[in-house]
Amino acid sequence: MSSMVLYSRQAKKMISVYKKKMLLKTKVKHQQYIMRTGNLSDAKIVSSYLLSDCPSQAFSALVYVSPSSTELFYWNSLIKHYVVVSKNIKKAISIFITMRKLGWLPDGYTYPYVLKASGELPCFFLGASVHGLLVVSGFEWNVFVCNAVVAMYGRCGSVDLARQMFDEMTGVGMLDVISWNSICVVYVHSGDFERALEMFGLMVRRGGLCLRPDVISLVNVLAACASLRNWRIGKEIHCCSIRRGLIEDVFVGNGLVDMYAKCGLMDKAEVIFDRMEVKDVVSWNAMVTGYSQIGQFDDALELLKRMRVEEIELNVVGWSAVIAGYAQRGMGCQALDIFREMMHSGAEPNVVTLVSVLSGCAVVAALRQGKETHCYSIKRILNVDEYDSGEYMMVVNGLIDMYAKCKDLDTAQRMFESIEWSSRSVVTWTVMIGGYAQHGDSNSALELFSDMMQNKKGVIPNSFTISCALVACARLGALRFGRQIHAYVLRNRYESAMLFVANCLIDMYVKSGDIDTARVVFDSMKERNIVSWTSVMTGYGMHGRGEEALQIFEGIRRTSYVIDGVTFLVVLYACSHSGMVDLGISYFNNMSKDFGVLPEVEHYACMVDLLGRAGRLSDAMKLVEDMPMDPTPIVWVALLGACRLHSNVDLGEYAAAKLSELDSENDGTYTLLSNIYASAGRWKDVARIRSLMKNIGIRKRPGCSWVQGKKGTAMFYVGDRSHPISNDIYNLLTDLIDKIKVLGYVPETSYALHDVDDEEKGDLLFEHSEKLALAYGLLTTAPGVPIRIIKNLRVCGDCHTAMTYISKIVPHEIILRDSSRFHHIKNGSCTCKGYW
DNA sequence: GTAGGGTTAG
Predict the structure, then answer these.
(1) Which of A66, A72, A275, A405 fits as disulfide partner to A362, beta carbons 3.0 to 4.6 Å?
(2) Which residues form the domain of A769?
């Protein structure tokens, strides 16, 4: 082994020495030639430079040779060298351009290489102009050139033009196996796998005996089957490869392993893999990837061990596959472990590895490791000149996403802004929009989305972008914006990703208070999944339409979807918010028996909420005591909320104490407790809590409401007088309060402290943000149109009562969303029927 | 001509 290595090293050295000598001789000859003839070069000189493997010298010599058909050979050799050997496409093209300038006309050998070069860049205009040159120069077409045109258009993304060329070839009967393979590749690369399969079928049927699929055909069609997860056709190809005697080919074997692995049939993949006599690193990696993608990491790691034993060096793809597998499953820590092991083994991470690691950091919000990866990326990738390259942008997109998911939105934004508009891809926009949408700054998300849409020659949103924008709308309850996006979706084609988009639309309509349109979207879906069903059910639950929610649940039971914990959470939530206590209890008691879903902490919290709302506080407490796991803060918060609702001081104090034991005291805890004391008239305790909060330095989150006006959204804080029509708002409010007092409204002063830091109570009640928002809505909304208000915290009880009275005397439905549900208030009654 | 990667929902 080592002697062979030594030998090949020596041989290489000798060859390079020989070439250097040749080059030296040629240079001397060249100088002598110039002295002797006064000319700068001739064909012999060019030929000598080419033989001594020095294309750049050959090129500069060739420029001085006058055109004649025999010397065209040298141009073609040069172009071929740069396209095929050194893959310096730009150089190849500059040679072609020089050649044209000097008056040479390309021939049947030049065209395929130049077309290939255009495709590799890819540059549509170059390719199309070469095609144009072919047409106008009266070149006699042959099958090689035609195939090259098909491939070029395919690589430049013009599937239609590629197909047009192919059809013309069909018309004159100029097709060989390579033509069929070329058109198949075009479809595979464009993602139209069905059509690739269709073309393969046509080839087999039409071609007869003289057009038999070769290794390349099989490899392509296997890739299509793998992408479509169509193992039935894959199996047929498997048989075909046996019949044709091509199963021994390592490429075909790899294709089969990959196809079975992608279809999740790892046992079949294993059989092929074990029978392959020649395996290369691709075969191993395909298996490792297969196991990683179905989450069988033990098997993947076992293979890695076997590779070590058999001394096969795992390359970067294998490592990346395992890292990506972990990252996609949200197992960021394991992904980082493998990354460390990889660095340890000495393998060099590449773009794919880095992107996978970044995604791992993103899912576990590991900012420190993310920053380390950023540093490493700068060393490895981000210092290249090709700022615009796709690979560069991929890493940058991964970084922006990582920073956004780690909640470092400032850094994410700075990176995003440092990228020129022309370099931002749709993914760049999407990660930034999504980053804002997920971390609360939904207004910025929508602004960014508008920026992107208004850039005329810019980027077209894909289904991911649309989904992110809809998430932002849902958070803001921005129904108008959401409707515009819905209209955009209907005008443009998003069919292939409609499931995801429609699910987001449902959620947007639900959270914006339009459950009926959400239902229309749901009913019109061609394809649904468990998320679609659960979203609609959540909608009915949030809007207090418990019976309809449970009808949806019964609908799910009739489908074959697996009912999971999230679905059950929604069922319990719906029962809780519609007062269906006994039904909720029975669902909860039977969920593990009938559906195999074990109740988790969240389910217990929901049950505490359900019992607590119904006033069954001792039952709620008993449930907490009997929990098989330790209660987490959400459980105690639910209990505390119930104590507030039913003014139970003792239990409330207990829950608050438990919360502070768990180190999770937040402003909500203190506010609730303070309100419990207030409703019991224990003002001293209220004052104690207030000063405690001041001492510890906890500030209350200000209550804040916003309302959808004609011109966008208006936002109000408690006692807010900053709005231009503030005077009108307060006047209207005073007037309304007076009117409803006549109807029997009595201010509930115990809520006065709910939202104010100020010790004064009483008058301040009517400065609550939701009341201000309502008054603004009344002033700016046409009669008959619902007024939509959103509050960040839970709605105050007095505001709720006041709004119910007000709804008797105004020609509007009031649709109010708070942190827990929707209230539809109309003609003096509310859908929450007291179960808020 | 084969293997790996970034953005979305309950």
Answers:
(1) A405
(2) 704-830
